[in-house]
Amino acid sequence: MTRTFPLAALATVAALALGACQPQASGSDPKFGAQVRAYLLEHPEVIEEAVQKLRANQMLEQAKAGASELSRYRQQLEADPRDLVVNPKGRFTVVEFFDYRCGYCKVVAPEIVKLIAENPDVRFVFKEFPIFGEVSDSAARMALTPQVKAKGFTLHKAWMADRGLDEAALDRHLAEAGLNPAEVRRAAANPAIDAQLRDVRNLATALGLQGTPAFVVGDYLIPSADIGVVRAALAKVKGGEIKRLGSPT
User: Fold this and answer.
1) Whole-angstrom Cα distance, residue 139 to residue 212?
2) How many alpha carbons fall within 13 Å on the CB side of residue 95?
3) Which of 18, 49, 87, 105 can pair with 98 through a Cys bridge, CB separation 3.0 to 4.6 Å?
4) E strands along the chain, which residues?
5) pLDDT digits over 119-162, tens only?
């Protein structure tokens, strides 16, 4: 499939490529420049990759610039024992604010599963942030019950994969996981779950979040479903740019 890129971005990529490849001797080398141009024309995916990396770096700068308040909320973000956490012994942490009825959350969910599988050293913290109505509320409340938590990541993946998620579908997935839907719904009425959801809403408000999904990776706040930016931020953190909670000093 043919991809179209902004002229300014292509010019930037071309300038960077040619600038990085200039020979040491003074003066220009038309033959070398022609070889580079021919290669880029034959391999346009190189330009696409460079543009994507440039965009990710720009978004990372924006994400970091908007994250000045993160240090104040680090404990609430990363170490709330009430949250679902995958790979709890990981050295690095990614936090996602999500809604089971959010279309963008569902689109990015398979990539999150992949990221988790590829990074056993990463703790992935799921923050229930229901903003799309009653079914979202029901799913979030049930997800925070002891019965559903005991199933770990199983129901989270099932509910995320269900594009037509409604109350009946929630119960169906509970039954398929070996749980009694009526018992789970009774447990979901626990006032402690109300308090947890209220705490997450307050935290999201404090961070200026208005939608889902949103990710926190180290000192980066990423209010979008761009998993490429999440991966880029994680690479920065793993590279030692940011000292993580509980990491060796």
Assistant:
1) 15
2) 28
3) 105
4) 84-86, 92-98, 122-128, 214-217, 220-222
5) 999 999 999 999 999 999 999 999 999 999 999 999 999 999 99
Report pLDDT for 21: 43
The per-residue b/e assignment along 1-40, b for 16 or more CB within 10 angstroms, e otherwise, is eeeeeeeeebeebeeebeeeeeeeeeeeeeeeeeeeeeeb
| Maximum Cα interatomic distance, the chain, rounded to a whole number of Å | 78
- 120 token code pair: 């056993």
State the pLDDT at residue 25. Answer: 47
Domains of the chain: 7-64 (no CATH), 68-238 (3.40.30.10)
| pLDDT-derived band at 5, boundaries 50, 70, 90 | very low
The pTM score is 0.74
Which residues have a Cβ under 8 Å from the Cβ of 141 and sit 6 or more positions away?
188, 189, 193, 197
Which residues sit opposite 124 in a β-bridge? 86, 94
SS3 of 126, please? Answer: strand
